[in-house]
Amino acid sequence: MEKGSINVQTAPDVPNALNIGMTHRAAVQPLSVEQVHFEIDMCIGCDRCMRACPVPLSSQVSIAELNHATVSSEVASHVVRFTDECVMCGSCVSVCPVDNHRDLLMLSLKQRLGIPWDGQVDLAHVWGDLPEGWTVELLLQALREQPLFQDRQLVPDNYLLHFIATSQLRILTPGTELMREGEFGREIFFLLDGLCEVFSQGTDAADMPMAILRRGEYVGEQGMLTGQARNITARVQRIATVLVVPEQVMQRLIEIVPAVQDLFEQSGNARAVVTILSRLDLFQDLPQEELQQLAGQAALKRFDRSAQLFSEDQQNQPERESFHLLLDGFVKVARKTGRPQPPERIIAYRQRGDYFAGGLDMLGDRRAVTVTAITRVIVAEFSRAQLKSLLLRYPAFKERLQERVHLYQEAKVAANSAVFEPFDPAALQTSVANLVSEAEARAGLHALVDDGVVEGTEVLVIDLDKCIHCNECEDACERRHGHSRMNREGMVVGNISIVTACRQCQDPVCLLCSRAGIGRKPSGEVYITESCIGCGICAERCPYDNISIVPLGEEADEAVAPQTWQRFSRFFSKGAGKERGRRALPMAQSVLASGPLQLDQADALSEMRKKIAIKCDLCAGYGNQACVQACPTGAAFRTNPGSFFGSTEDILRSRTR
């Protein structure tokens, strides 16, 4: 047997085997044993797939070694590690001259090697970080008190040991904040000992106590599940021992034990319903017990992008008897035109905290509408009986519901006034003008919704009345970062051009990265970390094509001109010019050192990355934004789309004046 290799029992074809680490390609079907041998026989051993592979360790693995491991019971240790690090990006497939499915061959090898968490756990750094009085056995016992981990058959001790080894154990003093409302974060906090208070900002901007967390409870799941800003603040009340779990670690456990995800989401969604109801003016003054009971009775539904919540054509459907509350995400509200083009007219976009009753747009004209998810959406559905009970027992709730509907009705009237006035020549001219301007407003609204602008937290816009088309904004971006992360030409709405660049989405689907190669700062900037290998999964998932993959080094792509590499190399070096400055970007070092892949730091530094992802991160780490600072006329500026463009009613009202 080859030195440093391990024996692996070749398993029969198992079509239902877990596809661990493949959240982005969950529908992929593995090859049968016969297909595996056929693919290997077809391979000509050219090594193109290994040269195209973005995983740094691929430079130390030959295609011959990989082929041997795929059909043999002997697997070299470095091939085992490479197999674990493979992210199934598919870069190998497009370069194969014989059209081999190397990605599916890797999937077969991954499944045959099994789940990495079944193997031995390195607890060396855990022993050094244990607080006084704690042992590994006590940590396991404390974690078993969590509802998620009580079933030893589902979550064996070895899984929990890996869970501990890839997370961070912290002792926190009273007053320390685990998380702050309004900030972004994907970590989850498991309370092993002590007390934490949880509160949210109420409708009067005062802190509203919500709960006291004790040993055996956790907090922070909402940020991981939705990618949205934290909706509560958690603060240590009595000295606490907390296990801080990175998103990648929790996702790995959820992949291995899907039942954990069900418990996880049920608990998280119930809390989210109570939190959102507590913050809505509509439900103010309702007792906390009432809100908790209401949340417990709610049917929670999840919708992917472009999925339809309900349609105006669906008559006598259960949705018509329900009250729908948006917990997370954006939806577009449309009505069919009856014409081939355009088939629908977008009349509104709605977001977290908005609602529909009986499939009717209660915040608009109270008529049936078609509602479609713009982003991933979570909806709490309440029955007609539940809503009717609330209206009967809480007259103030009914008054607020009617008042809000009345306010939206006034906004709609203001936006569409004079269109149906009695005919006379002067009124006709006014009507025509208003109809034209409303059409323009509808077109602008359609663009903002369909192109996802409204789901961003910050967009770069250019006032075309001031822009002189000097391209200095793009040049400044390239001077600072070595490669431009923006395209000045973008969608135009009125006199505003929305630049093609990352919008720091509220629900960034690009953040799905098993290597923690892309992260988010608490203030909201989405950035590329030092763990990035340029696999392209984040770029593939971005709906707006705002992430690019750039090769590092001429050998990675002979088509890349030397001057391109020379320009991009400034990304890693100091330089001159007003765009240069102190760059203090957080780089997820702790995740690299102790994350789910267990990378050895020395090996990681010695391995050369081949590619890297680049995207706008709002010049995180600098004191200014290069594109905005360089604009000579002040035409370019950053803004929050919600506050800049306003609500649906604001857009229509401002454009039809």
Automatic annotation (TrEMBL):
Coiled coil segments of this chain: none
Occurrences of domain 4Fe-4S ferredoxin-type (ranges): 34-63, 77-99, 458-489, 524-552, 610-642
Pfam families associated with the record: cNMP_binding (PF00027), Fer4 (PF00037), Fer4_10 (PF13237), Fer4_4 (PF12800)
Keyword Magnesium: no
MF term (GO), any: metal ion binding
Domain Cyclic nucleotide-binding stretches: 148-254, 282-408
Protein name per UniProt: Cyclic nucleotide-binding protein
Lineage, top ranks: Bacteria, Bacillati, Chloroflexota, Ktedonobacteria, Ktedonobacterales
